[in-house]
Amino acid sequence: MSKNHLLTIKQVILIPVFAFYNIFVGLLVSDYSVVSQHISELALEAQFFAYSHRLADILIGLSMCLFAIACLSIARAKFTFLTIFVFGITWIFAGIFILTGPLHDVYGLTTVLIVVPVLFALEMRDYYSSKNFQNFCVLVTLIQVLFSSGFLVMDSCLSNTKELHSEFG
């Protein structure tokens, strides 16, 4: 593996670093709850928090896109490339367009995240011969499906509760 490929893969560590930075910034903003609010709402706060959050989102997206290109060039992992690259683009859009804009979430393309681990395990199995790695990727995908399903159910229940309160309240 060339030095450029190795560097492109190692730069992925920037993703959790900037993600934790966004969470940390959220802890510093008054009247913002990391638990009950979307992280994108930080872009609506004071200028420093808004711009540093948006820059972190753009850097996360660029890091994902670089990693996707490395997956394609090293392992010819076409589906992994496509899903990670699209997910990276959604992060870049989230950094450029604030929450109130229609292009912020690029119309829900972040749902591709659910299939990334299992595609990665399937396409990269020649590079990771560990069965534990493949099982871990499948487990992460299942957790994401359950997590996403749970949020859909909770959101539906909350909206129904609000409708009932507005009718009878």
Could you please describe the fold and organization of this structure?
This protein is mainly alpha-helical and 169 residues long. It is 69% helix and 0% strand. It is built from six helices and no strands.
Nutshell version of this structure?
It contains six helices and no strands.
The proportion of residues in beta strands is under 5%
**Euclidean distance between termini CA atoms:** 65 Å
Oligomer: single chain
For the residues shown, what is the average pLDDT?
Answer: 81
SS summary, helix count: 6
State the major sheet: none
Structural class: mainly alpha
Q: How are helices and strands ordered from N to C?
A: HHHHHH
Which outline best applies? globular
Helical proportion, percent range = 55-70%
Instruction: Tell me the total number of β-strands.
Output: 0
Compute the gyration radius: what is it?
18 Å
* Poorly predicted regions: none
